[in-house]
Amino acid sequence: MKNLIDKMPTLSATSSLARCLEKRQELTVDQVFLLYRKGVTEQRKGNFSLALHCLQPLIPFFCNTPLIWLRIIEIGIRLLYYRDNVNEGRVIDIYGSGRTRRVVLAPKRSYSSGSPSPAFYAQIADQAGITEDYLESISGVLLSLTRKTVDRKLRIASLSLAAYVALKMGRYHYAADLAHKMIDEEESVGDCSMTASMYLMECMVSTGPFDIALKVMSVDGNERQIGECGSYPIWAVINRCIVLCANRKYGEAEALYKVRFDNFQNVEQGSLLFFFFLMTAFQEIKASTTSNELYRRSVLALGVFIYSKLNRSPDAFRLINELRKIQDDEDEQAGDEYYLLRIKNESSQHIFIIVFHDMCSVARHIHRLVFSRHCASKPTSADVVVCGGGIAGTSVAYHLARRGKRVCLFEKDSIGCGGATGVSGGLVSAPIFWQDASIQHLARRSLNLYTQLAKDGQFKFTNCGRVYLATSRPNEILLRRMYSRGIVHNNNVELIDCPSEMLARWPFLQTEDIQLALFSPDDVALDPVALCQELARQAQQAGALVFENCAVNEVLLGDERQIYAVNTSNGLLETSVFVDASGIWTGRVLIKSLPFRHLQTAAYPCTYTYIHSTKLPTGAVSDITPIFNDLDNKVMIRASGFKTLCVGFPEDGIRPVARQGTSYGVWHHPEPDWDLFGSSLERLLHRCPILGDIEHGDLICGMESYTPDMSPTIGESSQARGYYVLNGLNGQGLSLAGGLGETLAEWICEGVPQINVAHLDVARFLGAHANSQYLMERVPEIAALTYSNIYHSHQCHTARNLRMSPIYHQLRDAGAVFGEIMGYERPLWFEKNPKPNRNALFYGQDSLVGKPVWFDWSDYTLFIISTSFLIFNIFSVASEYEACRERVALIDMSSFTKFDITGSDTVDFLQYLCSANIDRPIGTTVYTGMQHERGGYVTDCTLSRLSDTSFFMIAPTIQQERCVLWMKYWAKKMNVNVHIQDVTGMYTALNIVGPSSRYLMSDITGTSMSTQDFPAFRCQEISIGMATGIRAISVTHCGELGWVIYIPNEKFFYGSIFQKNFIGKEALEKQVERGVSRRVVQLLVDNHNKEADPWPQGGELVFRSLAIALCKLQHAVLSGNCVVLRPKEIPWNDKHVGSTTSAAYGFALGCQVCTAYVENQEFGISVDFLNRGYYEVDIAGKRFPVRVNLHSPSLPMISSEHPLHYRPTQ
Questions:
Q1: Percent of the chain scoring above 70 in pLDDT
Q2: Which of 1067, 1011, 1022, 1070 is nearest to 1044 (CA)?
Q3: Run of H or E including 818
Q4: pLDDT higher for 640 or 98?
Q5: 576-596 pLDDT tens trace
Q6: Cβ distance 1158 to 1144 under 8 Å?
Q7: DSSP assignment string, 1074-1129
Q8: Sheet strands (E) in 868-1009
Q9: What b/e string do you get for 895-921 counting C-beta neighbours within 10 Å, with b at 16 or more?
Q10: d(CA 655, CA 653)
Q11: Any idea where the FAD dependent oxidoreductase domain is (predicted)?
Q12: What is the H or E stretch that residue 128 is in?
């Protein structure tokens, strides 16, 4: 055989074999054999270009043979990582076929004419398509081929190569899994276990769980003596010492070091093999360093570092002298690198600077892990301090640094490796998934950011797309609504309604019961750890400082709860802005001056579980195979060319995380539970039966933070000034964090974000929402909805009755069915003949097709609360509507936010905050808006003047915390004497509405309520019975005649806005000058069948086209043979111009009524523009013509009880 190889002709341009390859002709069996042997020979000689040229064409012949893949991976590692590390002068050692292959990378020196340059190998790798993704894919193929082989050495070699590639890609969890399997393969402690031990140590030190690393690297000195079994205990001790140093446990490291290494000079020469293992683990050894010198230097460097940290100068100098003795000439020539070590002499208090020339890999690794993370330059102040090195924290730091802020980012572990990001599957949902316009914007910004970062950082980024599967009618409508949103931005969005076509495209799925599938092409699978590290790297390039393995221990507050500093593991750092983006630990930092000694946040962690296994045993999957979401079964599958992820979201399989002991924020990470995952596994096997052919899979349990309303929290907390929060991403962290980070950075730098974030603002929640019992009941339900779209009618079934009106029980007895808003229970409609023990809480959401459940109740009765109050118990929403419009009705509005604003500067303060003129006579009520600097709304409200210096303010329920934070911010900035008191819980608010409300109010008060005595937009204090101090305001918030009366709970008995200066005036004036480009309108939907058509829910797209009159033959009958041509308008130049924001059925109008915005960025919105267009709204893929109104139409009453019609307030 040797003679045959030696006699084989060289592959040149003239050889017949080369001509066959160039012309892509078929090869004979002999040629295939010769080509393989030639490739192996050239690989051994180090001619990697020629070896790769020989072996790659043989893949079709040996695709099921592990050795061909193994050799290609070895060559690829050499070429790829040579290219990446040529400037470092490194040595890479890989292990294949049961032996060590030493791959020497050129050190920092000039290259002789006979030696290949780094650029040469880089060119080979690029031409051959050798990338990290390619190596990862073929390593997965190699693992699948060797899984059942009887050759244990081949299995070990495959695991070792795959683990090495995973380490290089930063996939530490996966590498650790492979290292554990390597140990399982080894029958006794030997070479394989040594390599696996090094891999595990590298994984654990890099990802930061030092306590776990110490357990893995624990050493029992009684097991074996030094030198036995390849001196394994020595290397275990070195590993443990390194981990202890990285964890800053220098005392323990010293004790272990003294026991094992005081006599290091007597180490047996048999340790030679393990020196190469050390080089493999750290990948930074000089090519010229001999193994024995390496070992001695490693131990000495470790000792110097430990003793210097403990201020043990004599011991450190003793080891330094030993290091000097073993310095050789080659080290001096390559001495461009230095380590500066400051040792404080305990006796003389002098600082000694010791210079080491080109120290060994262990010293470099310690320098990287410890010096760079713990001993970096310590700043004394920063503009912004960011806590958390996950995707949220690195995104915020990146955007702040790019805006010129001095940013310090602190991560208690390693960037991207802790919390939810570290165990994330790396799946990014496209904007098509969300119906909310703001969330769509954030998702689009995130996706654009990651795409650009992937080009700059070259981390794994696969545009694989996603397929949503629906087996029920509601989810089919949901997919059609998603398609309507997606097709506007990407023509490649597909709807597939043929199960046979689905099976042909994805043969490993069971598709018989699928009614509709939607393909979203913009979804992405990426490496989340590498993404975070790239964000951190670019933030550092922009000037940010990043500190790993450094925790934020305390936030310090000064006057008026303003942040002035944070206390970290590196010491005190002055700052006025702190961003808490620490995921499940958000709000857990100590703040001694707060009542609970920490910030209260309305977010809580719960578990999610998924299976990580090898590639599906089919050739139909690859890296670009889409993600599959089965909406009805609540499972998700990500099948790629080297792995498979299977996730389930059943509510009964999700658990809130229990706190460990009494320590707040110390979470107990539960172990994965196969029993809880059982129902999801059954659904996964039903949808993808081939999963059952995979022999094993690892069940992984992660933790994610969820909010009660399924929306993220972002913004400044009302509990501490300068304390910003970004958390509660509800399982969609990767999809939204990029855009949220940009929005929060904009918020911090400019004061106001560009987009409307009222429904995301952390200030929308109250202290009651941060109650741990409430959150523990609610978050599993929210987690189960991770990949479900919910609409405005959706009501949760958990953690209800958090906040209730004083008349809640009377309303319940009357048949009220309640829905919640921000935890407050309010009647939605009334049932007929309610049962005493019924469930009065509505949960779920209205049907997307046809009439909702509340539509068809009929009849009504009269319910009497007391001798003075009447409530109509209406059993049809149409009847309720008719009562409000034709007679009188009473509505509980106690949930609305209420403030008393007093002080000598109150008028000037409110005049500046509000766009309307509020300096009106006492007893006047003004409806106004509060704008921010950009001219957008902070809130709308009514202000009733009670005295010269006091006002009563009513605002929406969701604004209770946000309003007071905004007003207090401006009160401090303006330095005015104003006192703002939240009195929401002090009053019961009842809205008496309808044309007969005037008569009812006269009856219960005994006073005249005529237009002259109590005109519209007035506020008076009245008495009802023996109750006094009741505030009555003649504004109903719904346009009809009526009053809202605010009853103190302890007494409840069962013009032009531009005539003054205000916030946002300049922005509004500029908008008037350039023309309004966006306007809110009312849409009346025509040709809609309420029985069978999908109902609008908000978020539907609005289209406008020009109407062109054309003559079209309609019919040919009038008199004689006369033909009549009738003009008909047809749409032309169809264009998307806006979206609906909310929708409801209008009983008086007899059609669906939508509120929408229409925009035109080219030349603005005018009345003429609106009138000339032909408009349609797309509801779940079906177009309906709509009429556009700038104001609600005024319709006469139809009731004969009150012939004097009135005109509703517009």
A1: 70
A2: 1022
A3: strand 816-821
A4: 640
A5: 999 999 999 999 899 988 888
A6: no
A7: H---EEEEEEEE-S--TTTSBPP-S--EEEEEEEEEEEEEEE--SSTTPPEEEEEE
A8: 870-874, 889-892, 897-902, 925-931, 937-947, 950-955, 979-982, 987-993
A9: bbbbbebbbeebbebbbebbbbebebe
A10: 7
A11: 383-747
A12: helix 118-128
Tokens of 267: 């180490």
CA distance 629 to 266: 61
Determine whether 226 is exposed, middle or buried from the number of CB atoms within 10 Å of its CB (0-12, 13-18, 19+). Answer: middle
Q: Give the residue among 273, 277, 297, 288 at the shortest CA–CA distance from 360.
A: 297
Give CA–CA dist 931/914, Å, rounded.
7
**How many Cβ atoms are within 10 Å of 956's Cβ, its own excluded?**
18
- Name the 3-class secondary structure at 346: coil
Range in 276-285, 807-816, 1016-1025 the model is least confident about: 276-285
**Sorting pLDDT into bands at 50, 70 and 90, what band is 705?**
very high
pLDDT at residue number 685: 94
All residues at 6 or more sequence positions from 186 whose CB lies less than 8 Å from its CB, including other chains: 156, 192, 193, 196
Nearest CA among 523, 515, 517 for reference residue 490: 523
Return the exposure string of 308-327: e unless at least 16 CB atoms fall within 10 Å of the residue's CB, then b: bbbebbebbbebbebbeeee
- The SS3 call for residue 812 is helix
pLDDT tens for residues 978-1037? Answer: 999 999 988 999 999 988 888 889 888 888 888 888 988 999 999 888 888 899 999 887
Q: Does residue 536 have a pLDDT over 70?
A: yes
- Two tokens at 83? 């290219």
Contact call for residues 34 and 8 (beta carbons, < 8 A): yes
Average pLDDT, integer, range 613-629: 91
Q: Is 998 helix (H, G, I), strand (E, B) or coil?
A: helix
**Residue 295: pLDDT over 80:** no
C-alpha dist (Å) from residue 214 to 33, 201, 206, 1075: 49, 9, 13, 66
Q: Is 870 left (phi over 0), alpha (psi -120 to 50) or beta?
A: beta
Summarised one tens digit per residue, pLDDT across range 446-487 is 999 999 999 887 788 999 999 999 999 989 999 999 999 888
The pLDDT of 350-371, averaged and rounded, is: 33
| 597 pLDDT more than 80 | yes
- Residue 198 tokens read as 């090094």
Q: How many helices (H) and strands (E) does the chain have?
A: 35, 44
In angstroms, the CA 214 to CA 211 distance is 5
In whole angstroms, give the CA distance from residue 621 to residue 641. 6
Token pair for 363: 């010293």
Contact 892, 880 (CB under 8 A): no
Q: Enter the DSSP assignment of 1152.
A: E
How far, in whole angstroms, is CA 1 from its chain's centroid? 60
Rounded Cα distance, 496 and 486, in Å: 15
Which segments within 360-430 are labelled E, that is strand?
A: 384-387, 407-411, 427-428
Residue pointed to by tokens 């925790």:
551
Instruction: Give residue 22's Cα distance to chain centre.
Output: 49
d(CA 233, CA 193): 12
Phi and psi (nearest 5°) for 1056? -80, 135
Determine how β-strand 466-470 pairs with β-strand 627-630. parallel
Could you tell me how many residues make up the chain?
Answer: 1210
Q: What is the largest CA-CA distance in the chain?
A: 125
CB-based contacts of 1205, cutoff 8 Å, min separation 6: 1196, 1197
Q: Answer yes or no: are the C-beta atoms of 738 and 449 closer than 8 Å.
A: yes
Nearest CA to 399 among 743, 823, 47?
743
Rounded Cα–Cα distance for residues 1176 and 1131 (Å) = 10
